[in-house]
Amino acid sequence: MKKTGKKLRIDKILSHMGYGTRSEIKKAVKNGYVTVDGKTIKNSGMQVDPDRDIVEIDGEVVKYREYIYLMLHKPPGVISATEDLREETVIDLLDEEYVIFQPFPVGRLDKDTEGLLLLTNDGQLAHNLLSPRKHVPKTYEAKVLGRIGDKEITVFQQGVTLDDGYVTKPAELIVISEEQTDMGIISNVQVTIHEGKFHQVKRMFEAVGSKVLYLKRISMGSLALDPELPMGSYRELTEEELNSLIN
Question: Would you say the pTM of this structure is higher than 0.90?
Answer without folding.
Answer: no
